Fold this sequence. Notes:
Elements: E1 2-8, E2 12-20, E3 26-35, H1 42-53, E4 61-66, E5 70-71, E6 74-76, E7 83-85, H2 86-93, E8 97-102, H3 103-110, E9 119-123, E10 133-138, E11 142-149, E12 155-160, H4 172-185, H5 199-209, H6 221-229, H7 233-257, E13 262-266, H8 268-272, H9 274-277, H10 280-286, H11 293-297, E14 301-304, H12 309-320
Parallel strand pairs: 1-4, 4-8, 10-13, 13-14
Antiparallel strand pairs: 1-2, 2-3, 5-6, 6-7, 9-14, 10-11, 11-12
Helix pairs in contact: 3-12, 5-7, 6-7, 7-10
Amino acid sequence: MELIAGDIGGTKSRLAWVTLETDGSQQLRFGQVYASAAFATADDLIRQFIADSQLASVPDELLLALPGPLHAQRAILTNLDWTLEAADMGASLGIPRVRFINDFQAAAAGVATLTATDVTTLNPQPAEPGGVRAITGAGTGLGLAFMLADADGRYRSFASEGGHIDFAPANALQMRLLEQLRAIHGHVSWERVVSGLAMNDLYRFCCAEHHAALPDEPVDGEVLVARAEAGDPVADAALDLFIDVYGAWVGNVALLYQPRGGLYVAGGIAIHLQARMLSPRFMAAACGKGRMRGVVERTPIFLITHSQLGVQGAIASACDSP
């Protein structure tokens, strides 16, 4: 079967054309990464990918992992101005089968494809065979999914929109952050503080806290890291704040699912901030749960360092489908 699998992000979209053989093997024929905002629609993106591949055959299936809730194979993306309908895309592109899954549902399916070199341990606890697994991660937004093992021990992934749960501050500093964000956004979810989208707000908040001048232009994660490395104390404080709230969020996920089979942290931000994620500060924030501290301390927590997790998960999901 000829498959195009894609991991669509608010910033980047990763696509792969794969031949799935009857013996279960896979052959990668073409792969590419695109800036999502460069395309007006998902159809335009897929047409460009097919043209760039220079492959003469027509794919049998298109499976896209999408950031946002799905209903009846229709999606309005959370951080990208696209609306997708699977049936309409199939007719428009001439692809016999088009399917959508949630991006973190795909990421969850991708966990089974990882090797030991694709993960770094954040909390070294033994994983329980067949135990519940969970995956979360900050990219452009904040994703969350969980995995349950069936009777044969094979994990099935389930989507969630947990990143949009109300943000809960853990101290006075974070209380002031909540008040500032509430004035800007109204509803303040965890995604408003733990995501690439949050970086500009975190930096501006820390500028106010440190009585520093506000930047003239929005500050994204890459600029924030560069400023911190150049010795900007406000940027360093903003990244410390980010690690504190990210750790607190991961601790919440540990309490929510008790994922004794493993709690996996994914997303491009974690990869770029790996040194800070591995610092004691992150796990201290994760474990700051009062009487439930021990639940987090017993949870095996891993950082995924593989950048193609979503695409691999989309391919795995296609292989598992009837």
